[in-house]
Amino acid sequence: MAMPAIILFSVFVLVPIISGIHISFTNWNGYSQKYKYVGFRNYIELFQSKEVWTAFRNTIVYGFGSTIIQTILGLAFAMLLYKKFLLRTVSRTIIYIPAMVAQLVVGYIWYFIVTYERGALNDILILFGHDKVDWLSVGWRAVAIITLINGLEYAGKTMIIFIAGLESIPDMYEEAASIDGANGFQVFKHITIPMLLPAFTTSLVLNIIGGLKLFGLVYSLTDGGPGYASHSLSTLINTMYFANQRAGFSAAVGIFSFVFIMSVSWILRSYLDRKDAEYNG
To answer: Distance between CA 61 and CA 73 in Å, rounded?
Structure first.
C-alpha cells in the first residue's frame, strides 16, 4: 500500500533534491551539456555574497513579518465571525477569496495600485493635493509593501484555521469560567488561547513556510528590484538560474534555502508542540 507513495515521493521530492545537490557542486550554466565540478566553491561564494545575504534578510522579513500580520488579522476575523449571525458565510467568503487567487495575479493587481505612473494610490494622493510617491523604488519600502500584501492575502486562510479551532472548544469551559466570575479577557487569555494552540501550530508553521518561500508577489511587483534590494531567496534562485545562467550557484542557494526553511519549521513545530503539551497534556 505504501509503494505508490514512496514512488511519488522519490520522483517528485527525493530525486530533485539529490539532483540539486549534485548541480550545486558544478559550474553548470543551465543549458550546456559540459560543466566542471568546482567542489564547495558555490557554497563559499554563497556565504560571501552580498546579494544572497540581502535576499536572506528579506526572506526572514517576508516569512515572519507576514506571519505576524496573518496571525493577528486571522485571529481577529475568527473571533468576530465564528458565531452565527446574519451574512456570516458571506463575510467569511469575502475575507477568504484573496487566498484562493494565485500570487502572481494578486501581485499584478497590486502593481497597478502602487505603481508610480497612473497607480491608483498615487491618483488618490494627487486628488487630495499631494505629490506622487514611487512606492517600489526604495528597497526597504518595497519589502514592507510586499510583506503587508502577503499578510493581507492569506489572513483569510488563517481565519479558517482559527475558526475550526474555536468551534472545537467545548462551551462548558466558557460557561464554567463565567460562573466563576471571569471576564471576557480572562476567558480569552486562560481558555481560548491555550485551547487554540493546535490551531496556532498549524497556522504558524504553514504561514512561516509560505512566507519564507515567497516568490509570486516579489516577481510580479518588483522582480527583486531595485537592483537586488527586494529579492527573496526564491526569486534570487530564479534570477541566478535564468538571467545570470549560473545554475550551479543557483542550486547551492536552493539547497541553503531548503535547509533553512526545514530547520525553522522543525524548531517552530517542536516548540509549539511542547507548549501545547504543557497546557493540554
So the answer is: 18
